[in-house]
Amino acid sequence: MLTALKPQPADKILQLIQMFREDARADKIDLGVGVYKDPTGLTPVMRAVKTAEKRLWEVETTKTYTGLAGEPAYNAAMAKLILAGAVAADRVASVATPGGTGAVRQALELIRMASPDATVWISNPTWPNHLSIVKYLGIPMREYRYFDAETGAVDAEGMMEDLAGVKAGDVVLLHGCCHNPTGANPNPVQWLAICESLARTGAVPLIDLAYQGFGDGLEMDAAATRLLATKLPEVLIAASCSKNFGIYRERTGILIAIGEAAGRGTVQANLNFLNRQNYSFPPDHGARLVTMILEDETLSADWKAELEEVRLNMLTLRRQLADALQAETGSNRFGFVAEHRGMFSRLGITPAEVERLRTEHGVYMVGDSRLNIAGLNRTTVPVLARAVAEVLRG
Ligand code: PMP
What we know:
The protein has 394 residues and is an alpha/beta fold. The chain has two domains: 10-45 and 308-392, Alpha-Beta Complex (Aspartate Aminotransferase, domain 1), CATH 3.90.1150; 65-295, 3-Layer(aba) Sandwich (Aspartate Aminotransferase, domain 2), CATH 3.40.640. The protein has helices at residues 12-22, 47-59, 72-83, 99-114, 128-136, 156-164, 188-201, 218-231, 264-278, 285-295, 297-329, 336-339, 351-361, 380-392, and strands spanning 29-30, 92-97, 120-124, 141-145, 147-148, 153-154, 171-175, 204-209, 235-240, 253-258, 344-346, 363-364, 370-372. It has a seven-stranded mixed β-sheet, with helices on both faces. Helix 3 (72-83) packs across helix 10, helix 7 runs parallel beside helix 8 and helix 11 (297-329) packs parallel to helix 14 (380-392). The radius of gyration is 21 Å and the shape is globular. The relative contact order is 0.17. The structure holds 4'-deoxy-4'-aminopyridoxal-5'-phosphate (PMP). The site of 4'-deoxy-4'-aminopyridoxal-5'-phosphate has 14 residues, from helix 4.
């Protein structure tokens, strides 16, 4: 039986990590994988997380099973963080999931159960795992235009044209903030237009919120999600705590389904059912830390302060990189780097140029020229800018 299995294509980002590890050059720069790194290159455990872990060790008396939908306190704390009371609690069903990926997967399975013929529309480009999970589940899929490679901004006109052609009951997968891989995001006016378009067509948004707090701040980053959640009858939200709590390996996420109050019980039962089929109880450790932090005023304030440091560090690096690229290339071609938000920007250089950055300069970024801003520091920004300028000169 096992011999009948076909080889799987290698994950490009994981491949890049391997190549980086094997590169002996001391001055190599890793801008590939999407984890936050501080200026010393470390992905730290956040202070509030460490404190919560110590406390948890003292107070935890059992490791018996938790609730099938997760601990109710976690789900409530996350709904508050994301929605801030924008939606009546009796319209909100939710399940804890293993990471944001688990939430995306459960959302897509829920969609397939509820409406097997619904098409899921994804942005071109999007996080590659969206594509591969949708394909794996055999869900009909279409792409909508999203990114203008010339300007490095959202192709608002193309996007709105494509969204106008979405059928009632179709699903539009949106990045709530900090679009991966492009870093380009709709502005508030464009979000309003997206919301109106969804209301007109009767499409259901599935919002992937993996970077709340990494773009314009915790509240601003949730603004689009809150707008859609208040204006539309049905909204799905797949959120991750991996980045904003820095608990990547704890696998902490949540799927929130907002619908009519009368149907909430059935939606919740279906979410529970999906958890039961796929992994039964969701992981608890990370969820418990998040709950402890969000429920404790002092821990919460410390977490928010550190998250803000992380966000501002990335914004400073963006400004420095945009300036350095302008100085080195003599053009404002890369000005968008300072406008982008989140951990990533797509530079818009060719795969051959990306390859030369790697082979000639030891700079590692994904082949579509997505770079992780947090992989940089004050010393490597000018090195990258010089390398990009050199490669562009041919
Ligand atoms: N969605 C997007 C857009 C992401 O970039 C990521 C992380 N790379 C996730 C979801 C899921 O993250 P995780 O499963 O690690 O929580």
